Amino acid sequence: MFRASVHDRERNPLRRLLTSWVALTGLLLVLSGAVGFTVNHLHAQSETRARAEALQTAQVVADLVVHRNIGPDDFVGARLSHQERADMDADVAVLVDRERIAGLEVWRADGSLIFADRDHPDVESRLPRAERLRLQDPSTGILMVDGSRGDSQTLDIFLPYTTGPVNAPTRTHGYVEVLTPRDEVAAQVANSTRTLYGLAAMFLAVLTLVLLVLRRRLLLREDQALHDSLTGLLNRGALREQLQATVARISKDESVMAALLVLDLDGFKAVNDTLGHPAGDALLIQVARTLTRSLRPTDVVARLGGDEFAVLLTHLPDAASAEIISRQLLAKLRVGSYSVHGIELAVDASIGIALLPEHGRDTDLLLQRADVAMYQAKRANGGVTLYDEANDAHDVTQLGLLVELRRAIELDELVLHYQPKARLDTGDLHGVEALVRWQHPSRGLLGPDTFVPLAEHTGLMAPLTEWVLRRAVTQAALWRDLGLMLPVAVNMSPRSLLDGNLAASLLALLAEANVTGDLLELEITETAIMTDPGRAVRVLRQLNAMGIRVAIDDFGVGYTSLTYLKSLPVHTLKIDRAFVTDMLTDPRDQAIAESVIGLGHKLGLNVVAEGIETEEVWERLKALNCDEGQGYLLARPMPADELVAWVRTRLAVDAPRTT
Q1: In what order do the strands lie in the sheet with 113-116?
Q2: Helix (H), strand (E), coil (C) string for 386-409
Q3: Cis peptide before 656, with omega less than 30 degrees from 0?
């Protein structure tokens, strides 16, 4: 049987409605026919029952009136006496007045009349009726025929008048004709019929109502099965169905071209964390409305889940059209007006494109490749990216690791290790840097190089960063309660820094842990700043106002403009380990380190050197007036409980530098 696609069902609601009503009408006609048959059957039963009741009445009348007043001799020629006739007239009159019968006549076997009630017409006009006695039922000797008396319809019942001993053959002497009012019989049948039709009409009305309710529920269930309950857009299952239909059309006509877009909102999680999930839902509804209004009628929009949407562009003239439409769509999203709880929000997104049939004909493969392209767009800090097989590093192993990483974040399999930072001049502990590790259930403890790049390339960086921040702030609160005031530094990805909702998210996080901003430091790279300097400056100023310190990590390996550096609200410069490790053997490294220290101090910034592994490097940096240092000489990264023991031991032995 042909099954219409989701797109066809969406575009032809009138046809669906008519089809449903035709089917419902057909079903009701069948049921009406069944009810009609049942009513006719019951009507016939009512007629039979009415005749049976009339016959019973006639037999009672024959027994009580006729047999009591007319004897066998009267059937063989004797005439009724005046008294017998008067008694018969009186009895019949009572029955007629009570409308139990319409008349009574007694006939001899030869057709001559013995008795007729007072309304009996001439005997001659009645004689033809006696001829019909030959039509009587031979098994009972009873004949029931429709008759009339004036304006009254009657059922004339001929009862044989027989005599003879019990269990012996009887002989018919004549007939008793009882005229039962047909109006009474008809009324009984009519009442029964009206009752039956009323019940049938009630049954059909209830059945129609039930069918309508059932139809509504079925349509609602179908709608829920195909649509996202929040936005009303098609869901993932319906999109897959439409993709399959599009692939089928392309298989028949190679000139047809289509494109699948996967779109992910940037910074959406911060909206949920800051304003709450209802606010996030309200924003998703507005985004869905913008997407729908911005596309052609032939295109299909779906919500894949969370803040991820998909768009199927159909009937494209060429591959370039997909990118053009995608960029136009992104532009409309960015300039759209979004307001939640009276707060104006900015929306940005990353879009990945997979072409049909160039990038595949399989539904799952197309979704995967569009997803890969979207993550490539995220890596480039937003925009539109066309799938490129050369950049697709999603082999089976990495895909498996990606799934495991997502689960690890959800199941709390990640851990933080902390590396101390100390003053170079006094050796006093000045804070720690939080470094994420993955306690893999089968592969053991994994360093960040194993999974952080994967998170950066696949969109998991935001939930990973959120997990690290939450755990670090919570740990700072625990240390504070133990009497250790240790600011915790957390590395931020470029995408996290450019999130316009970062400050609000951190404010909520600090309030939840009851921690002040001075116990948190964010380390950002030069690349993150220069990706979008204007936005970066705005975010950094918000962080500064909250008392959160900001450090520029790996300074010297990027391309920070000094124009921006002098205006950035940052507190610390961290010299990259590349210039520290060999500074005693490479004069150029020492020159760079010395220049960074001097530049930082002239800008009023604190300077921290990374990667200190020897006493000689420590002393040399101290001589260059570097403020702080960290590295294996001081301590390797360690779990939180080991750090507490390390701090207490260090304080006990007063060993300022080495472990």
Answers
A1: 113-116, 103-108, 171-181, 152-163, 143-149
A2: ECCHHHCCCCHHHHHHHHHHHHHH
A3: no
Six-digit token string for 388? 């490129």
* CB contact at 8 A, 548 and 520: yes
- Domains of the chain as residue ranges with CATH: 35-190 (3.30.450.20), 236-392 (3.30.70.270), 397-653 (3.20.20.450)
Residue 161 has which token pair?
């008048």
* Residues 59, 65: Cα–Cα separation, whole Å: 10
Chain segment 480-520, per-residue pLDDT in tens: 999 889 999 999 887 777 777 888 889 999 999 999 999 99
CA atoms within 13 A on the CB side of 337: 1
- Its sign, for the CA torsion 388, 389, 395, 396, is positive
Q: Are strands 152-163 and 171-181 parallel, antiparallel or unpaired?
A: antiparallel
0.70 exceeded by pTM = no
The answer to whether 354 touches 369, Cβ cutoff 8 Å, is yes
- The pLDDT tens digits of the residues spanning 28-72 come to 667 667 766 776 776 677 677 777 888 888 888 888 788 877 877
Give the residue among 353, 361, 292, 291 at the shortest CA–CA distance from 322. Answer: 353
The CB-side HSE value for 287 (13 A sphere, CA atoms) comes to 30
- The single residue listed with the structure tokens 């008694």 is 87
Distance CA 619, CA 442 (A): 43
The token pair that represents 382 in the structure block: 């937003």
For 118, the 3-state DSSP assignment is: coil
Q: In sequence order, which residues have a C-beta less than 8 Å from that of residue 239 and are 6 or more positions away?
A: 300, 302, 304, 310, 312
d(CA 603, CA 552): 13
The candidate with the shortest Cα–Cα distance to 59, out of 134, 186, 160, 155, is 160
pLDDT in tens, 426-484: 989 989 999 999 988 888 888 888 888 778 766 688 889 999 999 999 999 999 999 88
Q: Which two tokens stand for residue 544?
A: 């500064």
CA–CA gap between residue 188 and residue 192 (Å, rounded): 6
Identify the H or E element spanning 303: strand 300-305
C-alpha closest to that of 271 among 514, 407, 466: 466
Q: Report the alpha-carbon distance of residue 65 to residue 70 in Å, rounded.
A: 8
- DSSP assigned state of 638: B
CA distances from 224 to 230, 240, 446 (A): 10, 16, 43
